[in-house]
Amino acid sequence: MISDPKNYLAATVLNDGKVVSYRLLSRELKVHSNVAKKMLYDFHQRQTSKKPGSVHATYLVDGIPTITKAHSTNGQTGDGEDAYMQNSPVMSSSLPQEETEEYTIPSKSIMLAREEDLQAVKSKFARIRSVHIYSLGPSFVQNLQILSECNSSISSNHAHEDPLVVGKQYGVIQNSGRRTGRRTPALPMPIMKSKDTPKHQPQGSSKSTFKATESSDRPSSAENSGRATSQNESKPASKPALVKQEQSDISKSFSKPNARMNKEKPNSSPTVSSAPVAEQAGTRATGEDEPMKDSSEGEQEAEFTETNKQNAIRSKSQSERTQELRKMMDESDEEMEGTGEELSQNSEPIPTPKEASPQPAVTVSGGRRRGRRKVMKKKTIKDEEGYLVTKEEPAWESFSEDEPATKERTAASSMAKGKKAGGKPGQGNIMSFFGKK
Amino acid sequence: MEDDDADAFLRPPSDEKYSVIERTPSSYNPLHSFDLAKGDQKHYQQQYGDMYFLRLAKLKPAVEELAEEAWGDLEIAGESVRRVDRVLDVRQGELCWVAGTVYMDMPLKPNILDDISKDHWIAAPPPREKYISPSGQDQTMLEDESGRLRLIGTPLQMNMLVTGCIIAAMGTENANGDFEIIDMKVPDLPRQPQRWERDEGSVALANGDGKSKLKEHKERREGSKVALVSGLCINGDEGDTLTLDLLMEYLTGEACGQATQQDVGKISRLIIAGNSIAEGNPLHPRAELLDKKPSKKYGYDSAAYNPAPTIRFDDFMATLLPSIPITLLPGEGDPANVSLPQQPMHPALFPRSRNYASEPGSAEPGWLDSVTNPWEADIDGWRIMGNGGQPLDDVFKYVEGNERLDMMENLLRWRCGAPTAPDTLWCYPFQDKDQFVIEECPHVYFVGSQPAFETAVIEGPTGQTVRLIAVPKFKETGELVLLDMDTLEVEIVKFEVFNDK
């Protein structure tokens, strides 16, 4: 971490050619935003005295504008949409106007301007309350809109910081009355977890967390972000297993080494460093998902590293539990999709006979998989009183890999099928869970 | 002119320590008037006719009382004015007054019966800006459950009227069968609660002892302000969000000088009045849907949905929420139901901000309070009522001119927050009660997504005063409205990016 503002600014602005705003600087250097504004000024002064034009600043001017526009006049702002069929203008009516007193509304203006325009902007103000540098960049900023880049990089790179803790440091106005309705450690994080990393998160770990104890769900989620890349590779391999039981077996065998590697990694690089590492890996893997990353994830990781230190011994049993949970999750998914049965069986770690039965006879011939499986079929009959009654009955049906998606097929194995087509392992798993409702 | 410390930040860093600014707390007590029943309890089979009936039943006594007062012993040319109960009881040539519901018969107004009878199943014409017919074919009717009267006369030109408002009209029926009106009355502003009335009432109810009252009073900090913004229209595109960033930095108290930061610390709540997300409405034109080949993928098709706007909006709120509580109203373009009252946007749309929402089922309002549109609440003791702009935009189509404030005023004087529902404004078919009838006069009435900022104060017959605020679209104007909770004065803060070229 570069803590010296000059070095940081020289490296980012001059070498990397990036734009740095006071807000970004305060985040990077962990200083008050007001200090960051001064740092920008200081750097700007030094650089321009050394070499004029080497850095370009934008200023934020805050004050009371000269021309207070006559508000509360008519509200027509040339809506030039031709979508409206304008009627011919009506004669202005003689509505008895209530005394809408024409007093001037106090108005403030906050304007962002390039340094070249600073004087022009200042002349628009009757009274200037403050001027400060908003950002520094290596060259003339053609389109000021790119400055919002700084804030989006804050929201992606500093998302793991808890705003409730670090906000004070940056000069964010504090609020003691703040209530965070759901900020209980167990619930919100896992939910967001599943949103963050849906791609490399085939087995419903989000669901596991509902049942999981805290200690077991932490390692599993840290695993997700930390080992995202390796899971991405390993998961497609497990995918072809059409029959669910098999799939979970395979994924079990794959994930075991994963879990172990995982477990070792945080241990070898303890505490502080491991969090950023995991963070980075996650960021890389997620790519375009970056903005979704959120603070609680970061927290979670931080917490994880701590607990991990303490629980280095316990972690073995943890990984086993994660294993078990994952198995459990597979089952529950199937039940949802196949039979729509209650989730009540989730708690049984051993596969129920129903799930076991489809397992037999999956053969691979000529690159196709064929086999028989048990599905629940709906039967609608008319009973004695003339009502329609729908019953679900188990039935066997044969299937093959490239058979066109029949009704039963989509019902029973849509998950596996859709997944492969999309090339995104596992995502459909979660989505179809929601879709079902 | 520059303040002394205007360039305080145009200096090299020193050892100066900046004190932590603590935000003024907000006393907040929302009413849940517009919450609809959930799930199975919500039905759409009912007829809309009941709403008109209920509205008339509710407002007729109010308007009749006013009319009685004004015309009770009025004599015109020796003939005393008689009260008539039903519209059909009006006799030709007889001076009388009657109360009923206004119906505007406008040829340009969309009419479902016309569409069906003429078999108009072609693409709908573009929406009209106004329903007013240039050739003067519009007719004003007064109706109740018995029948209809055509109204004519100068008071119609003097007063703003739309379908669905309740009035009392005085006049005579002429030879053509038209009711020639001489004067008319609207229900006017209802009773206005005292400041803090409801909060005190609930405290007294809760545990009649003085202790919690003390605590309640502690919350009543002076000098608090409420910020109103509308029409953020976040579309997820990079490239036009800079003013939004400035707004965010302003509200968190990071931007600007220390004096401004102190001022910002007084803003105790942000109300987002609709249209936060541009094009959040996922309705595609029919042609587009037909063109699209059915996806082979099962379930969720990520290509059909652009998450960027909600992510960006979530980011925006999640940055603000640690510092300031937010009340979020849905608007026309937001991902909520289309018909009024729009129900709260679900917190699940905002994975980061939802931490601050209240738990489902808990009675306490969340720090991020996703509410209905329209919506009302007691903030710092004042009754605040507002909507996302649809009722006003619809009234706008009925009347001449652009005076949005007049229309807002009339909505209140009609005692009906959305008179044109269910005629030309989509709404839920209420059965037991027309929820849009305003029973208690608010102190502040705001309407979101308006073309420009406007404000005024109106007064009622019994000394009610209401601050009207038309909140402009932030996306177009860059304006944030600040409402002083001591004086109910408003000011605006405009965010701009200076661009000469």
UniProtKB/TrEMBL annotation, chain A:
Compositional bias per record (Basic residues), positions renumbered to this chain: 367-380
One cellular component term from this protein's GO annotations in UniProt: delta DNA polymerase complex
UniProt keyword annotation of Transport present: no
Region (Disordered): 170-437
Keywords: DNA replication, Nucleus
Superkingdom of the source species: Eukaryota
Molecular function GO labels: DNA-directed DNA polymerase activity
Comp. bias (Polar residues): 200-235, 305-316
Composition bias, Acidic residues: 331-340
Places the protein is found: Nucleus
Tagged with keyword Nucleus: yes
Record-level GO BP terms: DNA strand elongation involved in DNA replication; DNA synthesis involved in UV-damage excision repair; nucleotide-excision repair, DNA gap filling
Ranges of compositional bias, category Basic and acidic residues: 286-296, 317-330, 381-394
InterPro entries: POLD3, POLD3_sf
PANTHER family: DNA POLYMERASE DELTA SUBUNIT 3 (PTHR17598:SF13)
Protein name as it appears in the record: DNA polymerase delta subunit 3
Organism lineage string: Eukaryota, Fungi, Dikarya, Ascomycota, Pezizomycotina
From TrEMBL, chain B:
GO molecular function list: DNA binding; DNA-directed DNA polymerase activity
GO BP term, example: lagging strand elongation
TM ranges: none
Cross-referenced Pfam families: DNA_pol_D_N, DNA_pol_E_B
Entries under InterPro entries matching the protein: DNA_pol_a/d/e_bsu (IPR007185), DNA_pol_D_N (IPR040663), DNA_pol_delta/II_ssu (IPR024826), PolD2_C (IPR041863)
Biased composition (Basic and acidic residues): 192-201, 210-220
Catalytic activity: DNA(n) + a 2'-deoxyribonucleoside 5'-triphosphate = DNA(n+1) + diphosphate
Cellular localisation: Nucleus
Region named Disordered: 192-220
Residue ranges annotated for the DNA polymerase alpha/delta/epsilon subunit B domain, each copy included: 226-454
Keywords: DNA replication, DNA-directed DNA polymerase, Nucleotidyltransferase, Nucleus, Transferase
Domain DNA polymerase delta subunit OB-fold: 47-183
PANTHER family: DNA POLYMERASE DELTA SUBUNIT 2
Listed name of the protein: DNA-directed DNA polymerase
Lineage, broadest ranks: Eukaryota, Fungi, Dikarya, Ascomycota, Pezizomycotina
